[in-house]
Amino acid sequence: LRCAGMAAAEADTAEGLRRWDSGATEEAARCFRLGAATGEFIPALLALRTLFMGHTHLRLVPDDPSPDQLLAAVDRAKRQDGDSGKESEARNAAERFIDGLLADPSCSASCHLLIGLWMRLVTKNYGEAVKHFRIAANAGHYFAMNNLGVSYHLGEGVPVDYGRAAELYQRAAASGHIAAMFNLGLLCEKGDGMPLDLKQAAELYRRAADAGDDDAMCALGVLYERGEGVPRDIQIAAELYQKAADVGNKYAMCNVGVLLQRGEALPQDLPRAACLFRKAADSGYAPAVYNLAVLYDNGEGVEKNTTEAFRLYQQASDAGHAGATFNLAVLYDRGEGGVQQDLQRAAQLYQRAADSGNQDAIYNLANLFDRGEGVEQDQKRAAVLYQKVADGGDLDAMYNLGGLYEGGEGVSLDLRRAALLYQQAADAGHAAAANSLALLYQWGQGMALDPRHAWRLLRLAADNGSKPAKRSLKEIGV
User: Fold this and answer.
1) Residues with Cβ within 8 Å of residue 178, at least 6 apart in sequence
2) In a designed cystine with 80, which of 1, 88, 154, 271 is the match (CB 3.0 to 4.6 A)?
3) Which residues contact 354 (CB under 8 A, 6 or more apart)?
């Protein structure tokens, strides 16, 4: 029965390709829907996904899967029987079908497109994928134009060429391809291959969103949330996110969760935020995994569970989320989350997060090098790291870097430089920096002796909770 089902799926998919070539996309979608009905025949799943991405109106049946769900089905079909070391029956049937298309001397444009999709999404042979996308695009197949544009956009099988990607997206969008409108919006938003134009990006996202593209709804929502290319309107952003989330968009579910977490545009609802983060996390979206971990870490909307938080931080970190890597490092630093304190592991993780630009990780890594904990003490390197974070306005980094200059540790002794750093941090309300600056004034180190100004600084620091400042005031009899 299963073999008969595969044969029927092959026949339906072949018929769908013929209808696609004739321009009958609705009939092609019906055929591919039949071919994909078992959820196992990969060529039908790929073709249906591509049609739905180009023309969202083709999702006529209420329970039609989303493009993301179809791609997940492709991944499941590829993995079947993987534990036994054998190719799955679905994979074998798909390979026979693709081999048949390759052997056909009259292979049509839609067939070349499907071969390219197989090469790109299944075998990861990007160079061959580009070859087949180009053949179909040159024949006027605008679905292939969009896919070839993606190859140039991402640098898959060809060098990155945003200008060429923009040209291909524009040609496909002019034929009504919805995903191409969205992709062109991405280039406009970033200024890649075309002038940066947030208003034009918003307009492209709006056109795609109005046609039902949930990724475009989410992207347009982000622009409204930030006030970029459109007036800032968090309420409109929330409505767009919710509309996209309702059809299972993982990015939108995460964004709605963030609004619920903050109580912004929507009433604060931490349990619902946790539910949405979990749904998006189940799709492998690293920011959602991270946000869910934070809720478990803090016991917000869920029962506090640092062990589960650790597991989720690890998952998001493995997916490249710098914030998760930083929080994972903190757990190792403190010996929390069900792990023993391991400063060496913490330092390694701080370094990974720092390499991704995480400012908190850079600061904590500087602390470890400053104290020689988990790493060999290297105050020269600590000074470099403190400087990076201080340049971004971190008051603790300014204070600690001032301490290194005051003591000549890792840097040349420079009391004037120390005073300037203390002053900068103290002006922003850093009590410990005000205390250290006061002592320099008290003894005339790095600047003119000024006991009265020293007293004012000490009073300010003491009022802001500095215990050393309180002790200093007591010592001078105030």
Assistant:
1) 53, 54, 55, 56, 208, 211, 212, 213, 216
2) 88
3) 361, 362, 365, 385
320: exposed, middle or buried (Cβ count in 10 Å: 0-12, 13-18, 19+): exposed
Given this model, what pLDDT does residue 1 score?
32
- When pLDDT is averaged across residues 231-249 and rounded to a whole number, the result is 95
The mean pLDDT of 351-357, rounded to a whole number, is 95
Please provide the distance, in angstroms rounded to a whole number, between the alpha carbons at the two ends of the chain: 93
Q: Which residue has the higher pLDDT, 69 or 319?
A: 319
What distance in Å separates the CA atoms of residue 243 and residue 112, rounded to the nearest whole number?
A: 35
Q: 309: Cβ–Cβ under 8 A, 6 or more apart, which residues?
A: 293, 294, 296, 297, 327, 331, 337
Helix orientation angle between 109-121 and 126-138, rounded to the nearest 10 degrees:
160
Report the C-alpha gap between 277 and 264 in whole angstroms. 16
Euclidean distance between CA atoms 20 and 399, whole angstroms: 66
* Contact status, residue 313 vs residue 340, Cβ threshold 8 Å: no
Average pLDDT over residues 166-172: 97
Any alpha helices (H) in 264-305, and if so which ranges?
270-282, 286-298
| Per-residue b or e along 402-431, where b marks 16 or more CB atoms closer than 10 Å to that residue's CB | bbbbbeeebbeebbebbbbbbbbbbeeebb
Long-range contacts formed by 375-384: CB under 8 A, 24+ apart? 375/344, 375/347, 378/410, 379/404, 379/409, 379/410, 379/411, 380/410, 380/411, 381/410, 382/410, 383/410, 383/411
CA distance 145 to 164: 11
Residue 457 banded pLDDT, cuts 50, 70, 90 = confident
- The residue written with tokens 């002038």 in the block is 195
CA distance linking residue 430 with residue 307, whole number of Å: 34
**Residue-level length of the chain:** 478
The mean of the pLDDT values for the chain is 90
Q: pLDDT > 90: what percent of the chain?
A: 74
pTM recorded for the entire structure: 0.82
For 51-99, write each residue's pLDDT tens digit.
888 887 766 555 777 787 788 888 888 775 444 444 567 788 899 999 9
